[in-house]
Design a protein that fits this description.
heterodimer, A: 311 residues, Rossmann fold
């Protein structure tokens, strides 16, 4: 019998570190707008000429609906993470916008990590993500990672390689509780990644006329965050009809803005001709929400340029 | 009744260590908010330090093939892994973050500041280091190339990669990792951290 079996287990040396311009979108609660916000911020930044990569780490793979690409299994991404191979990049999903797509296979990550944790040379998900991203990170001006809400392994791994995190939240207490849970995740990762900062908290799907509610939630969040991070001035309004149209058609809001205008003209022409207009989009105007995403993206880019490590 | 939420200000506080649709102009006003990667904005320019870095005492070994700035080399860039000791990596991370630089650019700065003679002295000390003419040659002690370390990625174009390979041979480094380790160590010893005017 070899004595090496009884050697004390050495502490694993992690290789992961914050990668410049890598930003995680995270909240401890689901349904707060992470995926839609990620897609539209990325799309708007790409439209402005920045080279942007979106990484969908969610096994639901809903980014496909927001960006309008075919459903992916996530198997190639999982294989790249495990083997350190080149990640599967969907090139030019929009001009200047590439995507690493998620899918159901990512559900296996927690189980794989649990098995690997028993080995003394094991690296965690943050290390795997770092090894996969480090060779490609310089190809992009901005990398946005969408994370699943309840998956501690993936969220903390994403935070290990990020320079900043954006926390979207709705106005309800459940969503604000999710911001608190992010505090705990943040604290857990901080020793591994001291560079990590909160870029800001994003108020998502708040009614445009719910001014008192917005003010109240904003005060609550500002009280929680103190001087550590801002609540972004721009909030994204609640526009269910536009959100439904956007996902149904795989359009970003600035694209929906143009599509809605075009459809309005077609409907008017049909009515003038005495014909019944075809069933069209639910929304007639997506300009307001498109403008809000443009303002928000500007705020985020400005904030990122102020954060150390975003050169 | 409102729920009392946790104060997260201390949790999130920064650590001391530190195809366009027709008719829309969306995104146009966002250009320039984030400086292009690899190009430092004026606010991020590192001010000159008062202490002078060490000047090379010998002409470059490979004429006309000095290290090329990574900013200038925009095409054909590949990641090249080298292993650094853990303690050195910690210093390197702190220096690159503090000076808003990259591993590659800091390596270029290091080689700019160190002469081949100094590198040879450190990496493979020879008989001449006794200081006595005609003295007994010292046993050659090479830098240990088998130290454990953590891999970092240097982003190098072909000219930079070739330059490093040639430099390994010139100074007698047992490996690229040993050469890069020594260059960083000597640079950090000789040059204090630059302060960012930010």
């Amino acid at each position: 019998m070899t004595s090496s079996f009884f050697k004390p287990m050495e502490e694993t040396q992690h290789v992961s570190q914050a990668l410049d311009r890598v930003v995680a979108m995270a909240n401890g609660k689901g349904g707060v707008g992470k995926t839609t916000a990620t897609a539209n911020i990325a799309g708007t930044a790409a439209l402005a000429g920045y080279r942007v990569l979106v990484i969908d780490l969610d096994h639901q793979g809903d980014m496909k609906s927001d960006l309008g690409y075919d459903k992916q299994t996530g198997e190639e991404l999982l294989a790249a993470l495990i083997t350190g191979a080149t990640p599967p990049i969907l090139k030019d999903v929009r001009k200047n916008l590439d995507v690493i797509a998620g899918g159901p296979a990512l559900e296996d990550i927690a189980a794989i990590m649990a098995v690997r944790a028993g080995r003394d040379d094991s690296s965690d998900f943050g290390d795997m993500l770092y090894k996969m991203l480090a060779p490609i990170v310089d190809d992009y001006d901005l990398i946005l990672m969408d994370t699943p809400p309840g998956d501690k392994v993936i969220v903390e791994g994403a935070l290990c390689v990020s320079t900043a995190v954006i926390i979207p939240t709705k106005s309800d207490d459940g969503s604000v509780n999710g911001v608190e849970r992010m505090g705990r995740r943040f604290q857990a990762v901080r020793p591994r990644n001291p560079v990590l900062q909160v870029a800001g908290v994003l108020l998502f799907a708040v009614g445009s006329r719910s001014l008192r509610l917005e003010r109240s939630v904003r005060e609550k969040l500002e009280g929680m965050l103190g001087e550590a991070a801002p609540v972004f001035v721009t909030r994204i309004r609640n526009l269910e009809s536009a959100a439904a149209d956007a996902r149904d058609r795989g359009l970003l809001f600035y694209e929906l803005e143009g599509a809605a205008k075009g459809e309005k003209a077609v409907t008017l022409a049909a009515l003038k001709a005495g014909e019944k207009p075809a069933r069209g989009m639910f929304t007639s105007n997506a300009s307001a929400v498109a403008a809000e995403f443009e303002e928000l993206t500007g705020e985020i880019l400005t904030r990122l340029s102020e954060i150390k490590g975003v050169q | 009744m409102s729920i009392k939420h946790e104060d997260l200000s201390s949790v999130f506080a920064p650590t001391a260590t530190k195809g366009e649709p027709e008719g829309t102009q969306r995104g146009k006003k966002l250009a320039g908010l984030l400086p292009p990667r690899g190009v430092k904005s004026p606010a991020h320019q590192v001010p000159e330090t008062t202490s002078q870095p060490l000047q090379p005492t010998q002409p470059p070994v490979i004429e006309g093939k000095g290290p090329v700035s990574s900013e200038a080399a925009v095409s054909g860039i590949k990641s090249k892994g080298v292993y650094l000791p853990h303690d050195l990596l910690k210093v390197l991370k702190a220096r690159t973050r503090g000076e808003m630089s990259t591993y590659t650019d800091m390596l270029i700065d290091a080689f700019d500041a160190i002469s081949d003679k100094e590198l040879i002295e450190k990496i493979s000390p020879q008989a001449s280091s006794t200081g006595l003419a005609g003295g007994m040659p010292r046993r050659r002690r090479t830098t240990d190339s088998a130290k454990s370390g953590t891999q970092i990625q240097l982003r190098l174009d072909k000219a930079q990669d070739d330059w490093l390979t040639a430099k390994e041979k010139t100074v007698g480094a047992p490996s690229r990792s040993a050469l890069v380790t020594m260059a960083y160590e000597m640079y950090f010893e000789a040059t204090p951290p630059k302060r960012r005017n930010h």
